[in-house]
Amino acid sequence: GAVEVSVRSPVACWFSAMLYCFGGSVLSSLMLAEPPVAFLAKGTNIILASSVWYLVFYCPEDIFYRCFAFLPLRLLVAGMKEVTRTWKITAGVAHADSHFKDAWLVMVAVGWARGAGGGLISNFEQLVRGVWKPETNELLKMSYPVKVTLIGAVLFTLQHSQYLPIARHNLMFLYTVFLVVSKVTMMLTRSATSPFAPFEAALGHMFFGLQKIPSKVKGEGAASSNGSSVCDPSSSEQHRDGVKKRQAKKTE
């Protein structure tokens, strides 16, 4: 999606857009102690992303945005994005393995960062635009793309370590089909609910239980709220009486 513009500076808007597009490369480079500006060396990608950014935000009459708002074209672009997500995850896992041999956590982390870097780095990207929304932290409340990328990073790490008995190209095909089908379905139904919601609820109940507020505590809370509502008028009356007495003393 397009990056929300909250600043007037075109430079800040462009930089935030580049962070959103190449956030995976920046974040994975920081994890592996590599130059985070390495993505700038790919001039073709920068020119392409900059051209799209300019057409989206500065095209007269929003013609470019309106064209891509056409539903079939949006579905096509969304499907292509999910295909590139698979390639980013596999590239991140392989790149991490070349630095840290058989380090599962590193491979998962780098694959996750490479595939969902735009979401994971969103808070820093917001600061560049002069916005601070801590409630949108992906580590506190993950969105569907970040969740499905994490699952993909785990699967491809297991396959790369030869603990998952499936060929790499078969896993890529099945995972990509799942990504495209789920994304298109969510767009057609206009649903923001994650397909993993039922499984998350079941696993949360199984491993962590449900934290319910006891009825006794609820009753005490209701009583205290009722008590405050009863006491508020008396306190206000006492305040008005005190004000009247002070005014009477002043007139005397």
UniProtKB/TrEMBL annotation:
<dbReference type="Pfam" id="PF05197">
    <property type="entry name" value="TRIC"/>
</dbReference>
<keyword id="KW-0812">Transmembrane</keyword>
<dbReference type="InterPro" id="IPR007866">
    <property type="entry name" value="TRIC_channel"/>
</dbReference>
<comment type="similarity">
    <text>Belongs to the TMEM38 family.</text>
</comment>
<keyword id="KW-0407">Ion channel</keyword>
<comment type="subunit">
    <text>Homotrimer; conformation seems to be controled by binding to diacylglycerol (DAG).</text>
</comment>
<feature type="transmembrane region" description="Helical">
    <location>
        <begin position="39"/>
        <end position="57"/>
    </location>
</feature>
<feature type="region of interest" description="Disordered">
    <location>
        <begin position="218"/>
        <end position="252"/>
    </location>
</feature>
<keyword id="KW-1133">Transmembrane helix</keyword>
<dbReference type="GO" id="GO:0042802">
    <property type="term" value="F:identical protein binding"/>
</dbReference>
<keyword id="KW-0631">Potassium channel</keyword>
<feature type="transmembrane region" description="Helical">
    <location>
        <begin position="14"/>
        <end position="32"/>
    </location>
</feature>
<keyword id="KW-0406">Ion transport</keyword>
<feature type="compositionally biased region" description="Polar residues">
    <location>
        <begin position="223"/>
        <end position="236"/>
    </location>
</feature>
<dbReference type="GO" id="GO:0005789">
    <property type="term" value="C:endoplasmic reticulum membrane"/>
</dbReference>
<protein>
    <submittedName>
        <fullName>Trimeric intracellular cation channel type B</fullName>
    </submittedName>
</protein>
<dbReference type="GO" id="GO:0005267">
    <property type="term" value="F:potassium channel activity"/>
</dbReference>
<keyword id="KW-0630">Potassium</keyword>
<comment type="function">
    <text>Intracellular monovalent cation channel required for maintenance of rapid intracellular calcium release. Acts as a potassium counter-ion channel that functions in synchronization with calcium release from intracellular stores. Activated by increased cytosolic Ca(2+) levels.</text>
</comment>
<keyword id="KW-0633">Potassium transport</keyword>
<keyword id="KW-0256">Endoplasmic reticulum</keyword>
<keyword id="KW-0472">Membrane</keyword>
<feature type="compositionally biased region" description="Basic residues">
    <location>
        <begin position="242"/>
        <end position="252"/>
    </location>
</feature>
<keyword id="KW-0813">Transport</keyword>
